[in-house]
Amino acid sequence: MSRHLLVWALVIFCPVAVGCSGGKKSGTGAAGVVIEAPPPKVPKPLDVAFIPTDAVFALVVDPYQMINAEGLSPLEGSTMSPLLQPSLGVDAANVEQWIVTGGTGAKLGDFFYGSIYRFNKDVNQAQQLCALGPNWEEVADGDRKYHRPKPAGGSCVYFANDRTMVMASEDTLKKMLSVAKDAESPLLTTLRKSTDASAALVVLEVDPIRGAIGTYLLFSKPPFPFDTPPLDKLKDAIKYISEAVVRLDTTPDVSVNGTLRTKDVKDDNGAEAVETLVNDVVAKLNEAAEARVKATANSRGGLGGPGAVARILQTTAEKLKTGLKLNRQKDAIDFAFAGEPFAYGLGLFAPQLLQPVKRSMQQAQQAASRENLARIAAALDAHIAAKGAYPAPASTSADGKPLLSWRVHLLPMLGEQALYEEFHLDEPWDSAHNKKLVYRIPAAYRDAVRVADGKTMYLLPTGAGTLFASSDGPKLDAITDDKGTTIVVIESTEGPPVEWTKPADLAFDPAKPTKGVAAIIRPVFFVLFADGSVRALNAYDDDKALPGMFSPAGGEPPPAKKE
Prior knowledge:
The protein is of the alpha+beta class. It is about 30% helix and about 20% strand. The protein is globular, with a radius of gyration of 26 Å.
């Protein structure tokens, strides 16, 4: 994690978290899907174990709430899953709580941080280590043992139990493991007064790092899109703030609230000074946004054009002005913000941040898609080796009615034997029992964008002329075309997504080869070919070659392979 990125995240998010807002939460998944969710959480005091006494910040996240909250589109599973899954080796929906904590060291510029993960269910420690890296050595630290990567370097891992994992550099991990149960610090005191009900909680102790923040702000420029950033005024607020507490709640609505604890400076009342500065910044934002709109009145209004950006900024500033509520106390300011979708808050920094964020998300999504299809390919190979054929699109009842998708029957080959045995195989996917398992979607079936909602975008091509034209599982010799250009599984970016247990797939229409395959705004999609290769295709560039790729025995000349 970049130290500069973290500093800015804390400096901007804590004092200025009023830029966040939200929409309605319907109790559904990120794609509007009603699923069988875990039992409602009963709020309880935060567990502060392993948080060092010299830590100055803590970020506490409930991934399930973040993923399933409407109005948080930039923070839904499309961000959370790539953030946790590749680096942690587990699905974000199976993490009950994620805590990042850290602080500054004895020397100027030193910085430490570590992560604490609490899982919804027991994890196999050996499998978890394997997912994190190939080579580990066990190290004794007193009566505790942790795992260090070989060769040395990177994060070490400690399992407090089968549901709690701590990750940090070796020095930081030892510091975290040495924390006494009754340890005290300003940060720990505030955390102990909090509960785990919020989707996200940030606590920042400003007093110990006021000098470091001031130095950083002195030589840096906020990523703000105006020529004269009104956010410069917020630099003055740092000297009055001693602690910032910010909560992101998702029930019943998405909202941000918190407290800025203040201190008096000379003859200035800290709370009054901060309130004045914040109100001044909001007013300056609206003035600057209005001027920007006038200056770009004759500019192109297309997506990303200066005129469109100016209007986004103006709307954002207006929402901030109407949605922000301040309540000044003697030595603190309570604040709350609720309004339109989260994008309005993000819109303030759109020109500088959206493009790199978009690229980063796309790269993470593509990497996840490739990995998912590679895992499905290995499972299909295992199925063919064991059964002599691909799985049938669906299992059927005695009277021929579809019951469960091929995705369910592939579970043993995905290392999900225990989950497979929980299904009632003689019942349909939406029976009272089987429907409870929908939210237990394996990682390999989770779409890179729509995650944790029990639905998938990984489909078999079905219909006349495709490999899965019949209700039986085809054998490899059914493919007489080039296996390297014959599609077996497709990641449909258009949708709609389907419950992963439901016997539903892509009904391919050769007359409309991109229908159901790729969305206009997401034309690139990934496919798994019969030779086990995974490639990205583009609905605009490959539309003429697609009918031949869906056919296993059409005799068409194979198109040139490309990436």
